[in-house]
Amino acid sequence: MTAILAIDQGTSGTKAIVVDADEGTVAIAEETVRPTYLPGGGVEQNPHELLDSVLTAGRRAVSTASRPIHAVALANQGETVLAWDPATGTPLSPAIVWQDRRAENICGELAEHSADIARRTGLVLDPYFSAPKMAWLRRNLTRAGVVTTTDTWLVHHLTGEFVTDASTASRSLLLDLDSAAWDGELADLFGLGGERMPRIVASDEVVGTTRTFGQEVPVAGLIVDQQAALVAEACLEQGAAKCTYGTGAFLLANTGSKPVRSSAGLTASVAWQARQQTLYCVDGQVYTVASAVRWLQDLGLVQSPTELDQLVAEDSEGVLCVPAFAGLAAPWWTPEATASFTGMTLSTRREHLVLALLQGIAAQVTELADLVGRDLGRPLTRLRADGGLTNSTALMQAQADIAQLPVDIYPSAHATPLGAAALARCALDPQLSLKEAVGDWRPSTVYEPRWSADRALEFRTTWAQAATACAAKGEHS
Asked: pTM here?
């Protein structure tokens, strides 16, 4: 038997599970993390809180499991960065979260290089990614120590090593996508040429050992959270796609062993390196999903996400929502865009607003699914889904209706740590294939489209006009 402690360090919390090869998930522990939202688009986390959440959740999960663990795996936020002292591990800055927009000016300064950056990295020049935030941090907070993504810092505390995995590195705007190696010219472009960069490792590589959670065990299974979910949901073949509905929504599709430069405004990244092979994916983001529902809560329109299905209207009565509360990502890439509700009258009630917001989320995901199909050269035939908001029947049915695709709900709430655990299991057993490590799963629910194709097209056309108006307003703000 092989028991893995898999830790998912996320934006709003850290989840640790112990997953046993025979028994499945045998323990779960979660710790809340509270980002600080600042004027001017700043979003920060306390690094001490991040580390404490990892240690506390991990130790609680191991204690609950009441069995020895054989490895520790870590999935991370991807683009959240901080400065820290490599000699002591002491943080020298707050963690600048992936949602932070304060590096927009830096991206503006580099606009003439955007096409070359996209060609080299597969990414769009945007503050969402690591390098602009790293450059902003260096300009505004501190020149001391090293500046890395949070995974490197956390792994250093666990093992003493200075590493990051290829999928995380590919989210930085500093990695040459074809070679999966750091690009010195890109580092120079962002004013980061003198920085010490972590060693890039594979996701099925043992990077060191730790005694943090009891007996000394290997640390492996390092990967970005969204790519980890892609693994867990067995999107192991070209063309398979999933969407995670969390703080934001993240749609990823496996594009195989060759990177596909998106012609449609999506981003291309390393999906994972495992078994001496680099696989790639394209992805698109909806920045505000659970955070948009939290906005409804803050206004008192709903008490909790569990109320959505009870409060939602049967029909939005013409109300449309573009949930661009933190800007629009692919394919608009308008960080200045703001959210909108249109079509309201004196008869509009909160249930119409709730449905319009859920349909707006589903419409944005549908746009991404359509673009993914263009990049793959064939439309998606199904969409796998995970994340907390897959519990909303109203949202998932809207997704199936608007996208005109069956939506398969992943049966566990722990896709991200389960993906990391599968990769760690591969690191412990070189004979095990990734497919064997993931295993088979069946959807807990399948949502089939109920709308006609004509109705879906009419809705998408009207909604896209509203989204375009939001983007145009953002560009001129």
From this structure: 0.91
Q: Is residue 314 a contact partner of residue 320, using CB atoms and an 8 Å limit?
A: no
Tokens describing residue 129 = 């990614």
389 in Cβ contact with 247 (< 8 Å): no
pLDDT tens for each residue of 279-331: 999 998 898 999 899 999 999 999 989 999 999 999 999 999 999 998 888 78
